Amino acid sequence: MNDTERRLALAESILAIKALSHRYSNLCDRGFDPDRISALFVDDGVWDGGEIVGRFEGREAIRTFLAGLAKVVTWSGHFVVNDEFEVTGDTASGLWRCIAVVNNPGVEPPIDNWYFQDYHFECVSKDGVWKFRSIRTDLRKTTGYVPYIAGHAPVIR
What per-residue confidence (pLDDT) applies to 156? Predict the structure, then answer.
């Protein structure tokens, strides 16, 4: 592969990885579709929300978690910004920042919260298709009540 082909392959990978993170966020904003979001992960993928939310290993565990989350969060709007990553052949890692507004019906009346969080990720390309190997969220700031932080974790696990 010559230099031009390498640079083109890198650019195509970067665009595909950006599209993967955007697809993930858009699916979250369309009701946290557990089947479609979990399909963005490799079979043994990991979604890790840390001590606050929990760690889910394997596509089925991720799907089950998302199905529960969809019952807790009635709607959301994720804005993906400031992504940075490194691509090495068929693997990549990095982070994207997310500013999100989320409706949490855990209190009356239901309230909207703003979140600022980092999504650290690793992904892999197989047969030209990029998928997540792992996502780890790092909640940096929230404006209010979060049901799963307030002790309602069994609802989403």
Answer: 38
Nearby residues of 126 by Cβ (< 8 Å), 6 or more positions away = 42, 90
**Kindly report the CA angle at 35 between 74 and 87, in degrees rounded to 5?**
105
Peptide bond connecting 110 to the previous residue in cis, omega within 30 degrees of 0: no
Please state, in angstroms and rounded to a whole number, the distance separating the CA atoms of residues 57 and 136.
12
Q: Which domains are delineated in the chain?
A: 3-156 (3.10.450.50)
CA 16 to chain centre: 15
Instruction: For residues 109 and 96, give the distance between their C-alpha atoms in angstroms, rounded to a whole number.
Output: 32
* pTM score, whole prediction: 0.87
Mean pLDDT of 87-103: 92
